[in-house]
UniProtKB/TrEMBL annotation:
The lineage of its organism: Eukaryota, Fungi, Dikarya, Ascomycota, Pezizomycotina. It is a multi-pass membrane protein. The keyword Membrane applies. It is found in: Membrane. Its main location: membrane. This is RTA1 like protein-domain-containing protein. One of its GO terms (cellular component) is membrane. It holds the Pfam family RTA1.
């Protein structure tokens, strides 16, 4: 029977024995989802979704390390691996989410409706995502050292807050674009071959889920090592593992890979047979 082991002296990395069944279940779920995403990526040549698929690999590695940590709670390596990879996987999901909005806008030839210049749209949000990634990644390892653990947690909170703020701005940008399209739709907005609204709804869904997860993580680290969230395992599976698996499922079902094809087609080829009358609003 495994027992909780100290890392150094009376300092413990874990407040509980990590559940092997739970870790293995999510390892297999994320593995299946990741394989599916790489297949879709290859089939549709959607290179902008590569970061998303790599995020799935991060989740697989993270939960594999959690399962391995059951008999090694006093070892720093499995703790660091699971902490870093589970923490950073959603940041990679976010990168592909950010890259999708600009493609949606260009697919309906509505660059003039974008709150942020389309040429800068992806760059601004992905830059914020990279900043969040670097901050969280550089701090995650510090959390395994007793002397710097508190500082590491505080830095991770900063990285998570950057992610929450960027997602908030991203959702606002998406909503403004949709409202402007509703009021002044382009001809392509009426083309049933361009499922831009469906893709927008997918962005909203995964963005909200990642935001909820990030807010949970902020609260978790803000409460400290002795707080309820870090000292119990179930919240992490409910508010992180389950939500991120839902993100992979939603993204896989409503996969935005066709956007590259729609962007490359001439405008005349993507317009409906019936051009909308002037003054009509997008339904």
């Amino acid at each position: 029977m495994a027992q909780l082991e100290p890392y150094v002296g009376d300092y413990y990395l874990w407040a509980y024995l990590p559940s092997v069944p739970a870790a293995v279940i999510f390892l297999l779920l994320f593995l299946g989802a990741t394989i599916y995403h790489f297949w879709k990526l290859w089939k549709m040549r959607a290179r902008f979704c590569l970061a998303f698929a790599i995020g799935g690999i991060f989740e697989v590695i993270g939960y594999g390390a959690r399962a391995a940590a059951y008999n090694r709670t006093g070892k720093v390596l499995p703790y660091c691996i699971q902490n870093v990879f589970i923490l950073l996987g959603p940041v990679l999901f976010a990168a592909s989410v950010y890259m999708t909005l600009g493609r949606i806008i260009r697919s309906v030839r509505a660059e003039h409706h974008s709150l942020v210049r389309v040429g800068w749209l992806t760059k601004v949000f992905v830059l914020g995502d990279v900043l969040s990634f670097v901050i969280q990644g550089s701090a995650a390892g510090l959390m395994a050292t007793g002397s710097n653990a508190e500082m590491g947690k505080n830095i991770v909170v900063v990285g998570l807050l950057v992610q929450v703020i960027m997602f908030g701005l991203f959702i606002v940008t998406s909503i403004v674009f949709q409202r402007r399209m509703h009021q002044h739709p382009t001809a392509q907005a009426f083309d049933r071959a361009i499922p831009w609204k469906s893709h927008l709804h997918t962005l909203y869904a995964v963005s909200v889920l990642i935001m909820v997860r990030s807010i949970f993580r902020v609260i978790e680290y803000a409460m400290g090592q002795d707080g309820y969230l870090l000292s119990h395992e179930w919240p992490m599976y409910v508010f992180d593992a389950l939500l991120m698996f839902a993100v992979m499922v939603i993204w896989g079902v409503w996969y935005p890979g066709n956007l590259n094809f729609l962007i490359q087609k001439p405008a005349s080829d993507t317009m409906s047979m019936h051009r909308p009358e002037e003054g009509l609003r997008c339904p």
